[in-house]
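ok so I'm stuck.
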Amino acid sequence: MVLGDDLKKRRRVLRQLGYVDSDMVVQAKGHVACEISTSDEIVTTELIFSGILKTLTTEQAVALLSCLVWTEKSTAKVKVR
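replied:
not stuck anymore, here's the structure
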């Protein structure tokens, strides 16, 4: 029952943001979010569709998007030359 409530809330948010329609059919934003593999697909998709990236310089866009890159914690030691 608890998971059912959580699922309903998630579906409502996806509908409100335009990722799916009222029949739960995936829309353009949903398809874009599915193709993104960062730490937060919804934030990245919203940045793309809001047009905010168009207003930034290349350097600013790279800096902003670098915040969304997910890196796995590793115990391997890397040598920097």
